[in-house]
Amino acid sequence: MTVRLAGKLMTLAAAAIAIRVTGIVTPAVAQQHHHPHHKDFYRLWKQPGTNVSCCDARIEAEGIEVGDCEPTRAEVRGGAWWAWLRQERRWIPVPDGKILRERNPGGQDGQLCWTPVGGVLCFVPPDTGG
């Protein structure tokens, strides 16, 4: 191995360590460590028009995903909110009747509570600074 190649490999290794140390993590790891802190918000939110909770933070417990609320990308299209549905890797429209006017604990991300059977249970738009 040449000195030049060895130097490049050391630079790549140092970059990998820097990424790990600075906290740049994959979305799955960020999900496990970020939104469980929002669980107190999620438990207080009620599905619009009901007294039923939007439930709990979506986390992985013993290899199984549980809960139904998590931060997500969200955007307005044609005057309506759309949210990124991570589980199906697609955008979904958010029904107006499912939008909560609550404090958003995540700020720039929307908060989506969703199940395969119930669809969108609740949605809190991102903080747009307005």
Brief descriptors of the model:
single chain; 130 residues; alpha+beta; three-stranded antiparallel sheet; 3 helices; 8 strands; globular; disordered N terminus
Number of helices: 3
Order of helices and strands: HHHEEEEEEEE
Shape: globular
> What count of domains describes the coordinates?
1
Number of strands: 8
| Class from secondary-structure proportions | alpha+beta
Global mean pLDDT: 73
How are the strands of the largest sheet arranged?
Answer: 3-7-8
Share of β-strand residues: 25-35%
Rg over CA atoms, rounded to whole Å, is 19 Å
- Largest sheet at a glance? 3 strands, antiparallel
What does this entry look like structurally?
- With 130 residues, the chain is of the alpha+beta class.
- It has one domain (26-124).
- Helix content is 26%, strand content 28%.
- It contains three helices and eight strands; from the N terminus they run αααββββββββ.
- It has a three-stranded antiparallel sheet, with no helix packed on it. Strands 4-5-6 form a three-stranded antiparallel sheet, with no helix packed on it.
- The longest helix has 20 residues, at 3-22.
- It is globular, with a radius of gyration of 19 Å.
- It starts with a helix and ends in a 6-residue tail after the last strand.
Task: Give a brief description.
The chain is α+β, with helices and mostly antiparallel strands and 130 residues long.
Write the layout of secondary structure elements.
Elements: H1 3-22, H2 27-34, H3 39-44, E1 59-61, E2 64-66, E3 69-72, E4 74-77, E5 80-85, E6 90-93, E7 110-115, E8 119-124
Antiparallel strand pairs: 1-2, 3-7, 4-5, 5-6, 7-8
